[in-house]
Write a structure and sequence with these properties.
369 residues; Jelly Rolls; four-stranded antiparallel sheet; 11 helices; jasmonic acid signaling pathway
């Protein structure tokens, strides 16, 4: 069995999932076995009356057009997810980003362990979310990095191997950050507010925060019993996800069902986070999603999180509040909001629903969120 490493601030010693996978064990530890109702073998929506169900695909080749704004807004209202194609980020850069991070996770364990993280910041090489002792764990390792604002950059937290990892990750983050800014404008236009209104609520382009989390899901001997990442909605503003180009794994909740996403080559998967749900008074919805693992193949994805400035109170935009639709959420800064996630790990939509439940009008309407 894989050996646990020092806890570095975690409530118990940390076991690397990759080490468990490579140990050759035929079964997974009980800590990774999900309750039956949460297992990926539960019914997943695969086909509808008009063919395969999949999240919408949005063409961003004309990012400033009214048609693009309408398509983005419809996807954010109806699904909370879409695939972005013709997004302007070079496909060669996507391949390089995947390649360098596969290279990192294929390093010897003692090399990766130099970058072990702690729950104080989560920055670095990690294997768990949340600090509850004895909690159920997900079948995945990850690497988390702050990119912006500049004062949060920690050069010592960035891996030195492979040699081109830093340069590639910086270039990738810059390109995807630009995509986020274009998407924010389209989302705002689709809402009928000023093009720069959502960005302004995030603290402007210079105030917005950017983080990257690279997810590594090793092969699993019993994938039907566990998850790579538990069901959750993203706590931040918006997520731009580069998924594995070989192995499916992402599932998105659609009503009572789970839709397994079939990705378009070189597309990004974009999803609304809780902060945009709050700002838009639930016109745009963050949606639960989870990750399956695989017995035959490892899987890697790169998530870039685009977040509001962490100390700004986030509340529904006044333009989206009326007597017919009162504010659904109480103000809270992103710093305050993400403390819940750091303590508890991914737990569905419990945090954003808790904000709604603190308002009497919101409590009556929270089913819409």
């Amino acid at each position: 069995m894989a050996e646990a490493v020092a806890s570095t601030g975690w409530p118990e010693p940390v076991v690397r999932v990759q080490a468990l996978s490579e140990s050759g064990a035929a079964t997974i530890p009980e800590r990774y076995v999900r309750p039956e109702a949460e297992r990926p073998s539960s019914a997943a929506a695969e086909e509808g009356d008009d063919g395969v169900i999949n999240i919408p695909v949005v063409d961003l080749s004309s990012p400033g057009s009214a048609a693009t704004a309408r398509a983005v807004a419809e996807a954010c209202r109806e699904w909370g997810f879409f695939q972005a194609v013709n997004h302007g980020v070079p496909p060669a850069l996507l391949r390089r980003a995947r390649g360098v991070w596969r290279g990192f996770f294929h390093q010897p364990m003692d090399v990766k362990q130099r970058y072990a993280n702690s729950p104080a910041t989560y920055e670095g090489y990690g294997s768990r979310l949340g600090v509850d002792k004895g909690a159920l764990l997900d079948w995945g390792d990850y690497y988390f990095l702050h990119v912006r604002p500049p004062h949060l950059l920690s050069p010592h937290s960035w891996p030195h191997v492979p040699p081109d990892l830093r340069e590639t990750t910086e270039e990738y983050s810059k390109e995807v950050r630009g995509l986020c800014e274009r998407l924010m404008a389209a989302m705002a236009t689709g809402l009928g507010v000023g093009e720069g209104r959502l960005q302004e609520a995030f603290g402007g382009e210079e105030g917005a925060g950017v983080c990257v989390r690279v997810n590594y899901y090793p092969r699993c001997p019993q994938p039907e019993l566990t998850l790579g990442l538990s069901s959750h909605s993203d706590p931040g503003g918006m997520t731009v996800l580069l998924v594995d180009d070989r192995v499916r794994g992402l599932q998105v909740r659609r009503g009572a069902d789970w839709v397994t996403v079939d990705t378009v080559p070189d597309a990004f998967i974009v999803n609304v986070g809780d902060q945009i749900q709050v700002l838009t008074n639930a016109a745009y919805r963050s949606v639960e999603h989870r990750v399956m693992v695989n017995a035959a193949d490892e899987r890697l994805s790169i998530a870039l999180f685009y977040n509001p400035r962490s100390d700004l109170p986030v509340a529904p935009l006044p333009e989206l509040v009326s007597s017919e639709r009162p504010p659904l959420y109480t103000p809270m800064s992103f710093d305050e909001y993400r403390l819940y996630i750091r303590r508890n790990g991914p737990r569905g939509k419990s945090q954003v629903n808790r904000l709604a439940q603190s308002n009497e009008p919101a409590a009556r309407m929270r089913g819409r969120s």
